[in-house]
Amino acid sequence: METHITNTNGALDVSIQMRPGSSVAEVKLQPGQEFTAEGGAMIAMSSHLQMTTTTNKKGSGSIMKGLKRMLSGESFFLNHFKAGNEGGTVWLGATHAGDMMVKELNGEGLIVQGGSYVASSPDIDINMNWQGFKSLVSKESLFWLGIKGKGTLVINSFGIIYPIQVNGEYIVDTGHIVAFDESLNFTLSKAGKSWVSSFLGGEGLVCKFKGQGTVWVQSHNSGSFGSILGSKLKPRK
């Protein structure tokens, strides 16, 4: 299955292929066009493309910005790809085994889980976002990514990714959240009527979103998968 996003108004020309289980992104660059990708995401690229590495946006490297992204579960470095007169193509892979999503931003912001960022247009800012101790209690990361700007954003999930429209209130399991609109507020809540039923039912704490916007969720829970897989691995001798 392939999803193709054409180049309009300076957006990136991105094709998502082999979805949803093993998605890869094909980014076709016009002459002089450039974009930014997570360190280590590149699978292959045209030989005449230029690649530079920084700890932040191109031309504004910052060690602190790189360290903040590491706290959010991302790489310390970002790679910047630029096409010459011939244009070119870059193939990108993802951290998780699953789907990818292409989102065009027009100045609005998204909160994205650590490890899900893949690539973006050069005018998009990527910063650490503090989610507070409510995330610690929910056993999720304290730090997510705050992504904002104008251009194309590519993120990935563990399993299939799909949107849930929120108009008022909606409850989502914390381990299935990939990203959500910055305009949404959320609080932690129990899944059932009581704390006992919530934890016995295997759900525990959930996020209750309020407002109007979109939450993108993934079909698999990486924490649960890691717990099951870890118990089956043989310890080192």
Layout: helices, strands, pairs:
Elements: E1 3-5, E2 13-17, E3 24-29, E4 34-38, E5 42-45, E6 50-54, H1 63-71, E7 78-82, E8 88-92, E9 100-112, E10 117-120, E11 125-130, H2 133-137, E12 143-156, E13 161-173, E14 177-181, E15 185-190, H3 195-200, E16 205-218, H4 222-232
Antiparallel strand pairs: 1-2, 2-3, 3-8, 4-7, 4-10, 5-8, 6-7, 9-12, 9-14, 10-12, 11-12, 13-16, 14-16, 15-16
Q: Give the integer mean of the pLDDT values.
A: 78
CA-to-CA gap between the ends?
43 Å
CATH H-level homologous superfamily name of the largest domain: Mitochondrial biogenesis AIM24
Percent of residues in β-strands: over 45%
**Which architecture of the largest domain does the CATH hierarchy give at level 2?**
4-Layer Sandwich
Give the assembly state of these chains. Answer: single chain
Integer count of domains: 2
Tell me what you see in this structure.
- With 237 residues, this protein is mostly beta strands.
- The protein has 2 domains: 157 residues, Mitochondrial biogenesis AIM24 (Double-stranded beta-helix); 70 residues, no CATH class.
- 13% of the residues lie in helices and 48% in strands.
- The chain is built from 4 helices and 16 strands.
- Strands 4, 6, 7, 9, 10, 11, 12, 13, 14, 15 and 16 form an 11-stranded antiparallel sheet that branches. A 5-stranded antiparallel sheet has the order 1-2-3-8-5, with no helix packed on it.
- It is globular, with a radius of gyration of 19 Å.
- The termini are far apart.
- The relative contact order is 0.16.
